[in-house]
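Before going further, it is useful to explain how the protein records used in this thesis are read. An example of such a record is reproduced below.

***
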Amino acid sequence: MASFVDSPGSPEAAAVGRVRNARGTGAKLRTEILDAMLRLIADEERMSPIPLSLREVAKEANITAPAIYRHFPDKETLGRAAIHSLFEKLLEQMDRAAQDAAELRPAARFAAVAHGYCRFAQENPVGFRLIFNVPPADLADGGPNATDVAQRWHMAVTWLAEEGMRMTQTPWEGAMSLWSAVHGRLMLDMSVRDMWPQGNVHQFIDELTRSVTNVT
């Protein structure tokens, strides 16, 4: 997980210009803190020079540092909440793609989910790399995680079987194989795009879908 450290020194004065949330709107403040954390995670420049501190998150949210502790008792808890939120957004994008393709043939539904997975990564490159670099033991508190992503890939592979994909593996093994293929090609596309003349990851998904189902 990304490194989060508290800065030394006494608590900051009240953030300038901050309008206090009305009594009973603590959930709104929690969301604002989490949104601030996600904005910082998405900003590679601000994440890379120094470990991210709760004081920096408070500054981004325009609140005092002590206000964070009413919702997140420590930096690890806030970090886990941010990772879970990113996983949730990834799952939402995959589910939305599946729903939009619900009336299409099974292979097209598989491709739609894979495209949704890759679009999230391309729109959130820093957060995407981060969530798959977190040990599962760090996310054992029940929030969305990689297991939920695996279930979406498993669902998509069962659609391929409906299309006539010859299954030489169990559905779970097939899901891992195809997820690995798309994820690996995606990471290449994000890191060595200029050296890869065979097209982008979305073209790869379409060709992969055709190759495993013999759909022309």
Q: What stands out?
A: The chain has a mean pLDDT of 83.
